[in-house]
Amino acid sequence: MSRGYDCDNREDERDQEPEQPSQAGPRRPVYGRTGGDSSNPERRRSEQRRDRDRSAPRRGQGNERLSMRSIEKWYGLSDRERATLREVGRFRTIDAQALSKYRYPGKPAAFQKEIARLQQRGLLLRRSISVGKQRDTLVIVALTEEAARLVRQDAQDPPDQAIYAGFVKPAEVPHDAAIYHMYQSEAAQLEAKAGKVRRVVLDFELKKEVYSKLAKERDCGALEYARRRHEIAEEHGLSIVDGRIALPDLRIEYETSEGDLDHVDLELATEHYHRGHMDAKTRAGFKIYGFVSTSRGRRAQWEGRELTANVLSL
Questions:
Q1: Are residues 178 and 304 in the same domain?
Q2: Beta strands in 16-83 (DSSP E)
Q3: How many CB atoms are located within 10 Å of the residue 29 CB?
Q4: How much is the CA Rg of the chain, to the nearest whole Å?
Q5: Model confidence over 102-148: pLDDT tens digits?
Q6: Residue 216 and residue 276 share a domain
Q7: Among 167, 193, 219, which residue terminates a domain?
Q8: 172, 211 in Cβ contact below 8 A?
Q9: Which of 52, 115, 126, 168 has its CA 20 to 30 A from that of 282?
């Protein structure tokens, strides 16, 4: 479901000019390295204030010490553990079973050990929820705020890669967790063509960017609004379908084998989709994935862009 974003159209207040020093009253003596009388009480008070300033901790120093301890904790992890945290942060919420499958293939014991270690260090959150008509148990993971901050500081991802922390609303968890399956299926195809994934963009981020820009145009006339909507869609590489900007569930930005930058937009089909939904998403140029529900979780299944007859439930 789309989230609305309001935009504040008020103009920013002008910066006030700095207050000019008063010309009235006696001038305070200036004490430098060579100036002033050492016996002057005003100088002694000035030096005492300077000494206190030197001995007092600088503003924000406590946060810097905390950050250093966090960084030491971060680099106490293995390369695979840090890569796991980066992966979780990019997708907000990941199905633990999928994370084990794709990040720790054939190594379930190592997965359990490292996930427990990341939890103990306060970097990873794990939760069990019931989903689907059969109320199957889904174990999901997400970053803590500290872990998200460390992932951003580590700078292994592009600067514009969003990193998320915390769990989403329970109703959104199955959909968000399934996004990771869809990504893995598409990323495997890109890598088979010597492509390299650079960045992933969730629908939340795209909606925020697009809606915030559209909100600024809401008071203009219909023709101007339509013109700006077209420009905004074009700016983000999106299409307008039935008078609305079509937004995918996931965008993957990648580098081709020739070194060019490109992207692919993916849509996750749910049981709520009907033929009209599928047709609109197809006209927008999205690749559509369906997910088959099983008694032991979910698995991604690529169905092609002609997925209109069968809508697979989560």
A1: yes
A2: none
A3: 12
A4: 27
A5: 999 999 999 999 999 999 999 999 998 877 677 778 899 999 999 99
A6: yes
A7: 167
A8: no
A9: 168
Residues (pLDDT < 50) of the chain are 1-36, 38, 52-66, 293-314
**CB neighbourhood size of 94 (10 A):** 26
The tokens for 304 are: 């092609």
φ, ψ for residue 68, nearest 5 deg: -65, -40
- Give the DSSP H/E element, type plus range, for residue 207: helix 203-215
- What the block records as the tokens of 73 is 């904790």
Q: Token digits for 109?
A: 């014991």
Three-state SS for 127? strand
pTM of the predicted structure, to 2 decimals: 0.70
Is 271 among the domain residues? yes
Cβ atoms 183, 267 nearer than 8 A: no
Q: How many domains does the chain have?
A: 2
Q: Rounded to 10 degrees, what is the CA torsion of 28, 34, 39, 41?
A: 30
Q: Locate tokens 């960045």: which residue?
A: 199
Per the CB < 8 A criterion, the answer to whether 81 and 147 are in contact is no
Check: CB of residue 146 under 8 Å from CB of residue 70: yes
What are the strands, taking DSSP E only, across the chain?
94-95, 124-131, 136-143, 196-202, 240-241, 244-245, 250-255, 261-269, 287-294, 297-302
Pairwise CA distance, residues 101 & 114, whole Å: 14
Q: In what order do the strands lie in the sheet with 287-294?
A: 196-202, 250-255, 261-269, 287-294, 297-302
